[in-house]
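User: I'm preparing a small set of examples for a lab meeting where we compare how different chains pack in three dimensions. I only have the primary sequence for this one, and I'd like the structure in token form so I can line it up with the others. Please keep the answer compact; I'll paste it straight into my notes.
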Amino acid sequence: MKAIIVRQYGDPEVMKVEEVPTPAPSPGQILVRIKAAGVNPADTYARSGSSANKPPVPYTPGTDGAGVVESVGQDVRSVRPGARVYTARTLSGTYAEYSLALESQVHPLPERISFAQGAGVFVPYATAYRALFQVARVRPAETVLVHGASGGVGIAGVQTARAAGMIVLGTAGSPRGRELARKEGAHHVVDHTAAGYQEEILRLTGGRGVDVILEMLANVNLGADLKLLAPHGRVVVIGSRGDVTLTPRDLMSRDASIHGMLLWNISAEDAAQVHAALAVGMESGWVRPVVGLEMPLADAPRSHRKVLEPGSFGKIVLIP
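Assistant: Understood. Below is the structure token output for the 320-residue chain.
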């Protein structure tokens, strides 16, 4: 089979397409024929060697994928060959024609969700759901600000918060991205590249501020985020690419809090809750990944550059 192999950490060009043996499932394992693989910023951090959870080389990147069960190992009961599935991490990586996974890492993919969409289910929607409900503990009618609302996690946050009865504000840096955020459920969307956009957010909330902020780029926004919080407001830091300076009194005066989260820290119990919620979301229609760009597997290096560019629009997926 063809697979992307990383043999040393470095720039995107360290990812090469190679011919490798197709794995065979052992007891409790499932072999998935990958129809689409999701590209996430976390994949780029692992490839560069900057991630605290970087995999040992050589390895095949990718945690998100969707496809068809090719074969199952002994004792697998939840799925059969031919079933449509999405992956939530794997044993062998998803940037490949086939991926080996534990039974617990494979979940049903409804017919209404395409394989390209399925490759954008796990990391974006599990991150958004965990940030909102398991970390920030949001409640209906609260106001949620989603920074980077046109990206994969941002869209998931907008859809999830809107479906749960929250007032949703979003930011995006391009007209196309802002229109997408509105289409996916944001009540208001502002341009985070415009001077004074924070004042616009406060105006939209009647000066009260927002209850919860999903922060994708904390090193740029976190200091200003604190001034946008309502009393008892919470910021959930989902992404950051550097250091930031804060004014603690912005937290103290509001009895506010900052929460960091990393999806890989999720417990088995919390993960089960997430996947149960996502199953309902896919069935009822509020989980609807937006695919912004499909690229061939050999374009993995370009995909790693694109996923970090400003002006994100939907999910980037690789097609083996």
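A couple of notes for your slides: The two ends are 10 Å apart (CA to CA). The domain at 2-121+289-319 is CATH 3.90.180.10 (Quinone Oxidoreductase; Chain A, domain 1).

User: Perfect, thanks.
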